[in-house]
Amino acid sequence: MPLVTTTEMFKKAYEGGYAVGAFNVNNMEIVQGITEACQEQKAPVVLQVSKGARAYANHTYLVKMVEAAVKECPDIPIALHLDHGPDFETCKSCIDGGFTSVMIDCSSKPFDENVEITKKVVDYAHEHGVVVEAELGTLAGVEDDVKVSAEDSSYTRPEEVEEFVTRTGCDSLAIAIGTSHGAYKFTPDQCTRNENGILVPPPLRFDVLEEVSKRLPGFPIVLHGSSSVPQNFVDIINAHGGKMPDAIGIPEEELRKAATMSVCKINIDSDIRLAITATIREYFDEHPDHFDPRQYLKPARQAVKDMVAHKLIHVLGCNGKA
Q1: Is 123 annotated as catalytic?
Q2: pLDDT tens track for 122-161
């Protein structure tokens, strides 16, 4: 099937009590690992591209790699999405360039300005058969060009969501309930420690999610910054020359709970980067004489595939839903 929008996959996810995985792509191995896992697990998927990915890999290359994945994985719906579009021009470029979904992120701007720019993107996108994700509330953390300090982050205000969605006409809404971008989502001071001395992050604000859901019944909600930062990857990285002290993510059980509610799309990026880095660091230590990129990128691709399959089954619950 050709590239699709997220409309139908989100409708099924909402009704079915699961979420669709939105995985960031930057190169061929990542695209292959994600889509091969989804094809085998019969899961719908959103492949998303950030402004940084477009700068790194080039818009045309990324679109063509995703088109190749569509051809190689004909049994699953695949949407191509712009992640954190910073302005109308970037969104327009992606709409004109083959994307089926875009996000306009004006969450750092005043409410009325966020509404104005988002509506401009929505009007243009809908004229071209493309859907739009918007954001209310601001996530902390660092992801590509998105950098927000903990002090500048803010939870979504449920009392604003109805007016925002009505005035903008957006198709889905990213909200802030305590997730965070990057591999260092929380400082140690924000966490507690369990009996084994392992950091435990503060819980997500499900009360905010529940109130948003009441005010927007049936409307698809999105969670950004939802990597779990698997500690096995962190341990491998640290054991093979890396330095990632206190890297911590969102517990998978909390994401699974969110997926059974109104959250229809969960974004995962850092876990992909960790899987690749851990695999390559370990490979270099074990094979110091190897220099062919195919030798170490092959197991890295497999690590992405295995990690994504785990997310599809145990976190998102979207396996078998294609």
Answers
A1: no
A2: 999 999 999 999 999 877 544 555 554 445 457 899 999 9
Q: Which of 83, 171, 269, 271 is catalytic?
A: 83
* pTM summary value: 0.93
State both tokens at 84: 């954190």
Q: Where in the sequence is the domain holding 96, given as residue range(s)?
A: 7-316
- Give the ranges where the chain is alpha helix by DSSP (H): 7-16, 28-41, 51-57, 59-72, 88-96, 111-127, 158-168, 206-215, 231-239, 252-259, 270-286, 293-310
CATH number, domain of 43, equals: 3.20.20.70
In the chain, how many domains are there? 1
Name residues whose C-beta falls within 8 Å of residue 101's C-beta, 6 or more positions apart in sequence.
Answer: 5, 6, 46, 79, 80, 81, 82, 130, 131, 132, 133
**Number of Cβ atoms within 10 Å of the Cβ of 90:** 19
Reported as a single tens digit per residue, the pLDDT across 87-129 is 999 999 999 999 999 999 999 999 999 999 999 999 999 999 9
